[in-house]
TrEMBL record:
InterPro entries: HTH_MarR-typ, Transc_reg_Sar_Rot_HTH, WH-like_DNA-bd_sf, WH_DNA-bd_sf. Keywords: DNA-binding, Transcription, Transcription regulation. SMART domains: HTH_MARR. It is found in: Cytoplasm. It comes from Pseudoflavonifractor intestinihominis. The keyword DNA-binding applies. The keyword Transcription regulation applies. This is HTH-type transcriptional regulator SarZ.
Amino acid sequence: MDQHREELNRFLVEVFHDILKTEELALSSSKKELSLRELHLIEEVCRAEDQGLDNRATAIAAAQRVTAGTLTTAVSLLERKGYLIRCRDEHDKRVVRILPTEKARQANRAHERFHEEMVENLLSFLTQEEAQVFVRALGRVSLFFREKMFSACAEAEAEA
């Protein structure tokens, strides 16, 4: 069993690193002015608008798991680069909404194509049954990491 633990640990570390590195390389060939973190923020803002989700700064910060200050800094930079805009809510001027520009939409579409290619490639060499088992197993792995993250966040808040 220890051999499986070592293999699984190495696999998780390597796959996580490889996905991020590949995503960075794909990004650098198309949108050199954006970091991966910035692109993921753009992705979140586009998703909020497209799906009718809360696009207030506080909601976007929570979805990205960053502080309001960190989000403000990132949005300011992306505003200067022409990717995001901030606007006051029509009904409640205290509320700041974050919206993507057309430039952000283009970057997000390119990023979506990368993800589609990644998934299609992976599914191309799995049978339907293997894909079902794989997705179910990854769902459990994802749940584990979410629980760990929320537990760590709760501990950090309790210490503050």
